[in-house]
Specification:
alpha+beta, four-stranded mixed sheet, 11 strands, 45% helix, globular
Length: 436
């Protein structure tokens, strides 16, 4: 999923839209004697189906679900957890969220070992488990997997304009020229959103020199190095050479960029596997259709983000667990809370996610392709799932100040208010000041 911020237009979130207010305001309604598990989330696709299945399998345990916007969730979480009035089961994202709240939740490793045995980690996507651990503790277990480093494209629009999916930036610029001459936008992008810019830059730098960005994040490489400058110059060229649609710096990815893409007005958008359910399944498209006025008639497919320069290969995908489920250390009934978390993480919960096109973290559960819009999407989705087992690295930068500095640099370069070298020097200044 797009880091932790964009909460609209994703199948996992839009499916909540009608039910959120009632879920947030209502009580548990539990009969006397029942144990109530309070479950908080900003993104819990298929929560109603999941709760019904869990309560059927666990008589005597009721789930009280509360949904928040991501901003409200983070604003309320620490005080709720430390006061003892917060959730039993809560949602954490890899990176800064795990780092900031990992000290307030249970270590799930011993619980997982007790239930699934000493080799329990082998049951899951390795990065799905690793990125939800901190300080030797398993803060959360993965809900499902996601990766960025992809572009989604309108296959019918490309066929109509006689263009192909580009493999590098030079090809993309030529492709965009043809697409724009036919009256369409090329790459729809919401440069107002830091997370969207960060995903594109990580795609570019992972193309220039795969993996070097993770050395820089760890303080082992300099952000002013030639590879980073090349990627930042490529980033700027997306705006100056006609790849990204005009006015992008004032637009959000959702809905400003995504809606024109859905409606067939733009050929490409840079997103990740979280976009697959809402664009490649019939159920997902019905939900997406509710967000736009024009009929969605397109067949959408995905491809790796093009290389940052002529001859450079497209990027490798990067990501990990979209989010994960944790247990508050203040929970009054940790046994019941663990039953919910283990249900979400094990076969039945993961199968519910797979059925709507989310990519399971449990290796034994394949994503479903039975609901695709077009048969050409089956191979695409299966390729995405395979990619999730060999990611080049993570999306979420685990140092908030560094992530903010890089986001600011990208925004300034996109707006033309800073040169690439100048912007990267500022990022390096922040990186050098961090205690890692």
């Amino acid at each position: 999923m797009p880091r932790t911020t964009p909460s609209s237009f994703r199948l996992a979130v839009t499916a909540l839209a009608v039910a959120l207010a009632a879920a947030a305001c209502g009580g548990s309604g539990s009969p006397p004697g029942d144990t109530t598990v309070k479950w908080w989330a900003w993104n819990a696709g298929e929560h109603e189906r999941t709760i019904a299945a869990f309560e059927k399998a666990n008589p005597g345990i009721k789930v009280e679900f509360t949904a928040y916007s991501n901003a409200d969730y983070l604003n309320n979480l620490r005080s709720a957890l430390t006061s003892g009035k917060g959730p039993d089961v809560l949602q954490l994202a890899p990176g800064a969220t795990v780092a900031n709240y990992g000290d307030l939740v249970e270590d799930l490793g011993p619980l997982a070992e007790k239930q699934w045995g000493a080799g329990w980690r082998d049951r899951f996507n390795e990065l799905g488990v690793d990125q939800l651990a901190a300080n030797g503790r398993q803060a959360a277990l993965p809900a499902y997997m996601s990766a960025a480093g992809l572009i989604y494209y309108n296959s019918g629009l490309l066929e109509k304009t006689g263009t192909k999916v580009p493999k590098d930036l030079a090809e993309w610029k030529a492709t965009c020229k043809t697409i724009k001459a036919a009256g369409y936008d090329c790459l729809a992008h919401g440069a107002k959103d830091a997370w969207a810019n960060l995903d594109v830059y990580l795609s570019l730098i992972n193309s220039v020199k795969p993996g070097i960005v993770y050395d820089a994040i760890a303080g082992k490489a300099d952000w002013t190095g030639p590879e980073f400058l090349q990627a930042m110059q490529a980033w700027r060229s997306l705006f100056t050479d006609g790849v990204i649609s005009s006015g992008a710096t004032a637009k959000a990815e959702y809905p400003d960029a995504f809606s024109p893409f859905l409606e067939g007005k733009a050929a490409f958008i840079a997103l990740g596997t979280w976009n697959t359910p809402g664009t490649m399944t019939r159920t997902g498209l019905k939900v997406s259709q509710q967000t736009v006025s024009a009929p969605i008639k397109s067949v959408f497919l995905s491809a790796p983000f093009p290389g940052a320069a002529t001859g450079l290969a497209p990027t490798a995908a990067f990501g990990g667990p979209d989010n994960g489920w944790a247990i508050s250390s203040q929970s009054a009934d940790r046994d019941a809370a663990w039953k919910l978390v283990s249900f979400l993480s094990d076969t039945e919960g993961q199968t519910i996610q797979a059925a709507v096109g989310n990519f399971p973290a449990l290796l034994s559960v394949p994503v479903s392709t039975s609901d695709v819009v077009d048969s050409s999407q089956v191979d695409d989705i299966e390729r995405q799932q395979k990619t999730l087992t060999s990611l080049i690295g993570y999306r979420q930068i685990p140092y908030p100040d560094l992530e903010t500095a890089l986001a600011r640099a990208l925004s300034e370069v996109a707006a033309g208010t800073a040169e690439p070298a100048e912007a990267l020097a500022a990022v390096q200044g922040v990186s050098s000041s961090l205690t890692r």
